[in-house]
Each structure stands twice: as C-alpha cells, then as structure tokens.
Design brief:
This protein has 117 residues and is α+β, with helices and mostly antiparallel strands. The chain has one domain. Helices cover 15% and strands 27% of the residues. It has two helices and seven strands. Strands 1, 2, 3, 6 and 7 form a five-stranded antiparallel beta sheet that branches. Strands 4-5 form a two-stranded antiparallel ribbon. The longest helix has 14 residues. It is globular, with a radius of gyration of 16 Å. This is Xylanase inhibitor C-terminal domain-containing protein.
C-alpha cells in the first residue's frame, strides 16, 4: 500500500477529497474504490458529459455505458469526450500523482452481430 489517496476528475476533487487507503495489486484486472467515492465519481463523469452528444445506455456486460452518434472503434476515440482522472497518493512526507487518461479507465464494448440461426 503506497498510502492514502485522493481521487480527482479533470483536476477537480471528488466530493471534498475524502481519502482512502490505496492498494495496488498487479495481478488484478479491475480497480475497486470505496462505494461513496465510486458513486461520486460516476456523478462527476455524468456531469462532465451533460453538454456532450453521448447518451447513457444500458450495456450488455457493464453497468455504466455511453453511446455516441458513431461507434467508438477503440479506447483512443474517447479522449475528447471524457476527462482525465488523477490519483494523489500521500505516503509519509511525500506525495505522488498518478494521471489516468480516459483510455486507461474506459472499456469500449463492441457490438458484434451474431449470425441468425
């Protein structure tokens, strides 16, 4: 554990910067954050997209999805629509910042048409 962490979106703190204990596990695919911080993050992401042409939709595999006028072909297509996250980690007397661009925290769900049977 590198220490206490604070989460930011577009350099704005998530709910007055509540801190949480950061733990990095190189063998884990997913990222987990406390429910209060996750819910506030989702709210902030929705807020940053309020002026966007993206529409929130129900995904097949993920609980939170957005759809554009044209399909995203890769995660690199989301850079202009979503804001960067950053994680400020404080350990003892030092502070580190981990910048997380949208293409590193989003997944593109590809609609694959199944053949008729």
């Amino acid at each position: 554990s590198p220490g206490l962490a604070e989460l930011f979106i577009d350099k704005q703190p998530i709910r007055g910067n509540p801190t949480f204990e950061a733990v990095f596990d190189s063998g884990t695919t997913y990222t987990f954050v406390p429910a209060q911080i996750y819910n506030e993050l989702v709210s902030k992401v929705r807020g940053t997209l309020s002026e966007s042409s993206l529409v929130e939709v129900k995904g097949r595999a993920l609980p939170l999805c957005w759809k554009g006028k044209r399909p995203f072909r890769s995660v690199n297509d989301v850079k202009n629509q979503f804001k960067a996250l950053s994680l400020k980690i404080t350990h003892a007397s030092s502070t580190s910042n981990l910048d997380i661009p949208p293409q590193n925290y989003l997944i593109v769900e590809v609609n694959i048409r199944q053949p008729n049977r």
